[in-house]
Amino acid sequence: MSTPIRFLFRGAVHEVEGVAPTRTVLQYLREDLHCTGTKEGCAEGDCGACTVVVASLEDGAARLKAVNACIQFLPALDGKALFTVEDLQQADGALHPVQQALVECHGSQCGFCTPGFAMSLWGMYLGQEDGQAPSRCQVDDALSGNLCRCTGYRPIIDAARRMGELPRVAFDRAALAAQLRALQREAGVVHGHAGHTFHAPRTLDELVAARVAHPDAVLLAGSTDVGLWVTKRMRVLSDILYLGHVAELKTVREADGAIEIGAGVSLEDAYNALCRHYPAELGELRQRFASLPIRNAGTLGGNVANGSPIGDSMPWLIALGSQIVLRGPGGERALALEDFYLGYQVKDLRPGEFVQAVRVPLPRAGVAFRTYKLAKRFDQDISAVCAAFAFTLDDGVVLDARIAFGGMAATPQRAARAESVLRGRAWDEDALRAAMAALAEDYAPLSDMRASSAYRTKAAQNLLRRFWLETRAADPLPAAAVNAFARA
Predict the structure, then answer these.
(1) Best exposed site among 29, 155, 191, 318 by fewest CB in 10 Å?
(2) 180 closest CA partner among 265, 41, 78
(3) Per-residue confidence (pLDDT) for residue 131, from 0 to 100
(4) Is 225 part of any domain?
(5) pLDDT of 152
(6) Is residue 157 domain-shared with residue 188, that is, in the same domain?
(7) What pLDDT, on the 0 to 100 scale, is given for residue 485?
């Protein structure tokens, strides 16, 4: 029996039945509701023309996040609220300060991308205190997922500053939270249509049982990868097992020298929690990992479970010695993350198992840790090479070395030869040169559209040198100085 999808839309409860589980929010808005303010540009979460804001109930409060409607499946809206650009207009017909600022600052030319920019700005507007002007970094981060071919961005950035100067428009989060509470379900449900099902369990035990009952179902968390299977590869997904309502997977806790992040925790929340412990080491990577709407939707657990060789989370997680926690009918099982990847898209998963959490060691005395990303663009670009180094140093001697790279092999992989060369040696230029030579034996990277094999090898070696410059005992260079030199 199929359960209707229920969510808040235009201030009222909206019910949907008889739609394919993989129908996207964008398709439903434009083709079924004829709400055409939300645009389709890329259908893969890159351009931001389809940006909407989704509200969910978290710890009893309403939390609003900008996401890409083009890759979000409609059943994932169950129990949430959906806001589109049409919602910005005030009851008296006046423009919202976000819209008024775009008008005053000439932030729109052809207008196609404008609704997406408006929704990203509205998401930032809701997060600002009255009279508080956003910093340039906050503006850039909020707009990192929106592309415009006309304006050159300056007038849009001007509008982001201007909107806070206009009379404030209040938003009643308490009333929204009350409405969302009335929509919450006590047990898992199934949305079905034409033989295709969307299973949405509410507890970890329900998820385990559903996984055993549907071993071939596609596990869905943030839909930032699976969504493209449908919109770009045109895959037909018969059964989907959605993790987004399982409360036990959305926890972040610290214990026994580690921070444990549930598989349902968004990338944005995961990186924010981690950056409280590793601000300098992970701050830039967090900003460059993906656009804010992608980080709002995607999960660290999904990134790790996917295990892409060019994923940016795995190298630094492996370098730090992180563990992955798996859950199945036999209970929990933890193993080193590096041991989880057996080959390209092959993982150490037993029947019925799924990723439950990731355990990341907290900072330890004597461990020098850095991570670096090389890509053609600063924002929202896949890495050509992603490097991570975690060295245990004592009086200039390398007691232990952990080196991991993405983009250099079929899986995220450690540099065993280079690590062996370094252990027990003084962290000097001779050791560096020996390790750089060993890196060429550790990896045989491919050439593709992002970089050649020769470039990747040379870049990996140079990143190791950069790490040495920042951590050597004799006159280390501050990271800021090395960054400035690298960008010159």
Answers:
(1) 155
(2) 78
(3) 61
(4) yes
(5) 84
(6) no
(7) 44
Report the C-alpha gap between 442 and 294 in whole angstroms: 32
User: Alpha-carbon torsion 347, 352, 353, 355, what sign?
Assistant: positive
Residues 6+ apart with CB under 8 A from 398: 391, 392, 422, 423, 424, 425, 426, 427, 431
Asked if residue 203 and residue 122 are part of one domain, the reply reads: no
Contact 362, 257 (CB under 8 A): yes
Do both 183 and 56 map to the same domain? Answer: yes
What CATH number does residue 74 fall under? 3.10.20.30
Q: Give the integer Cα–Cα distance in Å for 357 and 333.
A: 10
Measured CA to CA, the distance from residue 62 to residue 72 in angstroms comes to: 19
Please tell me whether residue 387 adopts helix, strand or coil conformation. Answer: strand
CATH of the domain at 123: 1.10.150.120
Cβ–Cβ contacts within 10 Å for residue 276, how many?
10
Q: What angle do CA 381, 383, 389 make, to 5 degrees?
A: 135
Residue 241 near residue 206 (C-beta atoms within 8 A): no
Whether 248 maps to a domain, the answer reads: no
213 vs 21: CA distance, rounded Å: 18
Residue 488's pLDDT is 39
The last residue of a domain, from among 315, 330, 361: 361
Which of these, 93, 136, 140, 101, lies nearest to 118 by C-alpha position? 101
Q: 386 and 369 in contact (C-beta within 8 Å)?
A: no
Q: How many domains, the chain?
A: 4
Q: Domain span at residue 209?
A: 5-86+174-242
Can you read off the two tokens belonging to residue 460?
């990996």
Residue 78, CA atoms < 13 Å, CB-side half-sphere: 26
> For residue 436, what pLDDT is reported?
98
CB 398 within 8 A of CB 422: yes
Which residue's structure tokens are 């060295």? 391
User: Would you state the pLDDT for residue 46?
Assistant: 93
DSSP at 2:
P
Please check whether residue 247 lies inside any domain of the structure. no
Below-70 pLDDT ranges, the chain:
129-131, 476-488
Residue 357 shares a structural domain with residue 379: no
Statement to judge: residues 391 and 483 lie in one domain: yes
Residue by residue, DSSP assigns 59-83 as TTEEEEEEEEGGG-BGGGGTTSEEE
Three-state DSSP state, 484: helix
Write out the two tokens for 481.
């100085």
Q: Which pLDDT score, from 0 to 100, does residue 480 have?
A: 56
